[in-house]
């Protein structure tokens, strides 16, 4: 599967030159084409049922593509039980702050 997947029937356009500042862009949907594309690409939806799209600035106009970014799962290693256990030995868990080292 390609990393770049473009939805069919969904078009993003820059705002018209005379549009007010609060208008950030326009989206046009060709219902029949987008409906067909969505039906054929249901596998792109995440576990909540969403297909996320990114709006990108191209050479001539804006466009959408499927945002299929998935963060890497971080492996979490359990802490060393000896370090955190009271029987762990010589771990000094006291916290001392010298008065002259406080910056305020």
Largest sheet data: 2 strands, antiparallel
Q: What integer value in Å does the Rg equal?
A: 26 Å
- What share of residues is helical? 10-25%
Overall morphology = elongated
Termini gap: 57 Å
**N-to-C order of helices and strands:** EEHEEH
Q: Give the number of DSSP strands.
A: 4
Which spans have pLDDT < 50 for at least 5 consecutive residues? none
Proportion of residues in extended strands:
15-25%
Produce the secondary structure layout.
Elements: E1 10-13, E2 26-29, H1 31-40, E3 53-57, E4 62-66, H2 81-84
Antiparallel strand pairs: 1-2, 3-4
Structure description:
With 104 residues, the chain is of the alpha+beta class. It has a domain at 10-66. The chain has 2 helices and 4 strands, in the order E-E-H-E-E-H. A two-stranded antiparallel ribbon has the order 1-2. It has a two-stranded antiparallel sheet with strand order 3-4. A hairpin with a 4-residue loop joins strand 3 (53-57) and strand 4 (62-66). The protein is elongated and about 70 Å long. It starts with 9 loop residues before the first strand and ends in a 20-residue tail after the last helix. The model has no long low-confidence stretch (mean pLDDT 84).
């Amino acid at each position: 599967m390609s990393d770049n997947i473009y939805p069919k029937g969904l078009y993003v356009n820059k705002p018209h030159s005379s549009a007010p500042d609060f208008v950030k862009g326009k989206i046009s949907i060709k219902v029949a084409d987008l409906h067909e594309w969505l039906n054929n690409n249901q596998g792109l939806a995440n576990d909540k049922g969403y297909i996320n799209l990114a709006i990108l600035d191209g050479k001539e106009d804006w466009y959408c593509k499927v945002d299929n970014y998935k963060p890497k799962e971080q492996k979490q290693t359990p802490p060393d039980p000896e370090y955190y256990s009271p029987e762990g030995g010589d771990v000094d868990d006291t916290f001392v702050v010298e008065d002259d080292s406080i910056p305020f």
